[in-house]
Amino acid sequence: NYAKQNMFSPPAKKEGRFWRVREDAELVGTLTTPVVKKSDPVLLQRILNDGCQTT
Asked: What is the per-residue pLDDT across 5-42, written as a single tens digit (0 to 9) for each?
């Protein structure tokens, strides 16, 4: 969970069982890129490479 790992600026606050994030908060955590393998189906490779719609 991004809120638990302090990936927002300003940080999220825990209220009861829920984490609250301000509307104007920015995501500052590290984002990873997917690993695309040659053995993956062509359709999956297209989605992972550019995120375009398939149809």
From this structure: 888 999 999 999 999 999 999 988 766 778 889 999 99
18 touches 12 (CB < 8 A) = no
CA 24 centroid distance within chain: 17
DSSP structural state of residue 44: H
Copy the structure tokens of residue 50: 């550019």
Bridge partners (DSSP) of residue 15 are: 18
Tokens of 15: 């209220």
Please give the Cα distance from 22 to 10 (Å, whole number): 8
**φ, ψ (nearest 5 deg) of residue 44:** -65, -40
Both tokens of residue 18? 């829920």
Q: What is the pTM of this model?
A: 0.49
